[in-house]
Amino acid sequence: MAKYSTENIRNIALVGHSGAGKTSLAEALLHAAGTTSSKGSVDRGTTVCDFDPQEKALKHTISPSICHFEHRGRQINVIDTPGYIDLLGRTASVLPAVETVAVVVDGQAGIELGTRRIMETAAKRNLCRMIVINKIDLGDKHMGRLLNDIQEIFGKECLPLNLPANGGAAVRDAYFHDAGDETDLLSVEAAHQEMIDQVVEVDEALMEKYLEEGEEPKAAELHDAFEKALREGHLIPLLFTSAETGVGVNKLLQVLAELAPNPLEGNPPPYVKGEGDDAEPADVTPDPDAHVVAHVFKITVDPYMGRVGAFRIHQGTIRTGNQLFVGDHRKPFKVAHLYKVQGKELQEIPAAAPGDICAVSKVDDVFFDAVLHDSHDEDHFHMSSLDLGHPMLGLAMQPTRRGDEQKLSDALHKIMAEDPSIRIEHDAIANETVLYGNGDLHLRVVLEKMKDTYNVEVSTRPPSVPYRETITVAAEGHHRHKKQTGGAGQFGEVFLRVEPTARGEGFEFVNKVVGGAIPSQFIPAVEKGVRQVLDNGAIAGYPLQDVRVTVYDGKHHSVDSKEVAFVAAGKKAFVDAIQKARPIILEPIVNMHISAPTDSIGTVTGDISGMRGRILDQRMLPGNQAMVDGQAPLAETISYYSTLKAHTAGEGVYTLEFSHYEAVPPNIQQELVSRYKGDDED
């Protein structure tokens, strides 16, 4: 039997901008709950959650880490997450495991870009949110302004449950209404009244009693309405704390244990069944006696424990010895050991109830976003798609040591298993492997892990731009392939016509040969020769696209005609036609969506114009932010990440998505053609 029932479980993600103190807050909570005998230090590298050597060196979290503690009969699972903007994809990957996100804000730095981004992500995931203002011990001179900024940017529903007092040396409770009314901001009574007014709006009976009878509800009466307000986003509680001094930490523990929603109260998990347009919500409920449905949200590849999969149970009870399936795999695995995760430590348990967060080890088939289940009736369930961002910054890699190609491949597979926010592509045309990440730091972390953990060193360079070739007018081509070698010869003659098609239509091959001028069995050979040119290009070595090729005539020989002859004839006839059809080089154009501080927008629009781009739209956003939409050639955006960071003091972010192909300017085409001819001569 599971130690904790579902109603006594709380799942919380600590999120927020880098440097806000999330890991220190997790340490303070663990210590206050009595789980650890002393509070760990980020500076000394002794925290439960930041145990990785890279994290200790950086003194920042770079991968989500799980811990848990008990308080007032509740089991509280906490996931500490990275705050670097480059690593927010890793943070977003664990959000399906929790009901509540606690957005930690540095009380001195205020609202930073990471705060905005993660608040938006949590809102999209329909998660309960609370804001924890940390570092109040460093002074209260900014607290009033910070409270106003939070309400202006995130809404008037952001209301304090406690308030700093004595210059951040204490807090006063505005929910449970402790004694002591003096605070550094508004009065406890005023904060208490605002909070009640907000909460009762979601409960008609409570509101009627409050308004008509003038009777103020007690804390116990407010609980259900409070939870509903949290679930609907009608209330975003604010709590003031200091992870360093412990001020407000006990009050935060009380709020997590008594007010945060349990898995029975949170919004239903976003499971769907079916694919694409046919997908529909799946009925997954936290019933301990139902079939098991669990979601894998984190993978760790450990040299001793093998592949460790951390998962959240959404339905059913998992016990040691259970047989579970991974997704649509037909072969089950046995849960030989079931673990609770405490940083780097795995603590064995016999069973876990719906809502709990656990892990299994040495299961090679488990993967990120997999659904674990004990019945093939559930194998069509999957979690609705996660928005982890689209990796923008790419590096082409190759091992510096000869013979390390397989080691590189193995390392990349393990890193991809652990980090779902990276993307790896192999460009067969350019013969390069490209690693895509969400910024310089993200890529640096991956490359350092590759070197330190897997002993693979690589050289890097910007990835090749996927240029394409096409034609602009119709033309005809002809070639006769004739070869006599003393015995049986080779003969094939082809007449064909090329014409441009609409951009994006690709390639079309049409056979209009009549009268057996080219026997039907040789037509595929002609197409094969044409396709060889398509792959390798005709003027600069880039693939050809948006071309229709029509074979309309030819000649054959009853003895000497062979497939190889018509392959050669088709290839040469196609090249002949292309040269007459005014070939051009196309470059990929991407849509750019840039978010930056308002005072940087002039520079951002200038950047786009300087990249041969165009502005499509720009608009102001709350909180001194603006959005610019534009288009630019992909080749011009390769180094834009660093440029935008420099121009916006690190606060600008952008996404790219492919839009279409356009012809390159004549000077660039000439440069690409000359480079290709020079390479050929070499």
Protein model, in words:
The chain has 682 residues and is of the alpha+beta class. The protein has 5 domains: 6-258, Rossmann fold (3-Layer(aba) Sandwich); 286-383, Elongation Factor Tu (Ef-tu), domain 3 (Beta Barrel), CATH 2.40.30; 395-461, Elongation Factor G (Translational Gtpase), domain 3 (Alpha-Beta Plaits, 2-Layer Sandwich); 469-582, Ribosomal Protein S5, domain 2 (2-Layer Sandwich); 586-667, Alpha-Beta Plaits. The protein is built from 17 helices and 35 strands. The strands form 9 sheets. A 7-stranded mixed β-sheet has the order 2-3-1-4-5-9-6, sandwiched between helices.
The assembly state of the depicted protein chains is single chain
Unreliable segments (pLDDT under 50, ≥5 consecutive)?
none
DSSP summary: helix tally: 17
Structural class: alpha+beta
Q: What's the domain count?
A: 5
Q: In angstroms, what separates the terminal alpha carbons?
A: 73 Å
The name CATH uses for the topology of the largest domain is Rossmann fold
Which geometry do the CA atoms define?
Answer: elongated
CATH superfamily of the largest domain: P-loop containing nucleotide triphosphate hydrolases
- Label the CATH architecture of the largest domain: 3-Layer(aba) Sandwich
Give me the Rg, rounded. 31 Å
Strand order of the largest sheet: 2-3-1-4-5-9-6
Average the pLDDT over all residues and give the rounded result: 89
Largest sheet composition: 7 strands, mixed
